[in-house]
Sequence to fold (349 residues):
Amino acid sequence: MKRTAARLADGREILYYDTDDGAARAFPDTRALDSSATVTTSEVRRDPLLGDAVVIASHRQGRTHLPPADACPLCPSTPGRTSEIPAPDYEVAVFENRYPSLAGDTGRCEVICFTPDHGTSFAGLDEERAALVLAAWTDRTAELAAREGIRQVYCFENRGTETGVTLAHPHGQIYAFPYVTPRTTRMLAGVAAHRERTGGNLFEEVVARELADGSRVVLEGGHWTAFVPYAARWPYEVHLYPRLRVPDLPALGDDARAEFPRVYLELLRRFDRLFDRPEPTPYISAWHQAPTDAGRDRDDFALHLELFTVRRAADKLKYLAGTESGMEAFMNDVRPEDAAARLREVASR
Fold:
């Protein structure tokens, strides 16, 4: 993998990732951008009752929202039309978000573009490109986690306007948080309590139980296991774990890294076959990684990916209604065992 670093006109960093060591990507950004326009006014506030951190980012109200394809800021630049990516072509590109929720003392937000092809999706990539995306996620996780003040790195993709996407181009985001996120904090509390009671690792036992039961297992590889969780919150939700527990992406072994593209692309393609609809299935794909701080929490954590869709049927969406939004009490309309059976049914032939 070759990594090429450059700067955009307003000083933001852009990185190109290529499989070809000879790729030339250092093209100048010719736009007249004001560096002061990207200064964030974000602040992190702490909820006094729950203890959760909340980011206040009112400056993001003016960010780009669903532009037409010929004005996409994530496509390569062309003569007469410049974008966020100055190069006329790329494989994978990562750059600092122009409208970041987190920046400076409050962290960092990056955009990762999986392909220059506006009309495809991650599921349409080949295994070589998916492996390059994994390499980019890994590189960004390692670099951002090493920065002072960063406590957790989160790589994720939202696909489909139903999930709140504001740009249709195949892309994801990488957030470097100055705190451990609320969901991870709750996971770690459960893992610590289990260790105190039993001496075992809860992540490992959850995976072992799913494999022993088998009814919710969706896909097994030599180095990855995918299953619908016993208490799934979303109609179609899959958790993907490496067989060997590691805290984060940089710690993945070579065998798991090599197998990941095939397994992950198969899961995404199954999601697209869930419903009899012409458009792709909307989903959120989220990497859960350990906090960056050395210690018991990091040692006990298990890297995993959670993939779920907000669609519960061909003509129905799963909205977060009063119980979910108001009380975080999820009500699932699809039995996890039925969801797993359907995801096995739509396997590639």
About this structure: The chain has seven helices and 15 strands. Residues 127-145 form the longest helix (19 residues). The two ends are 32 Å apart (CA to CA).
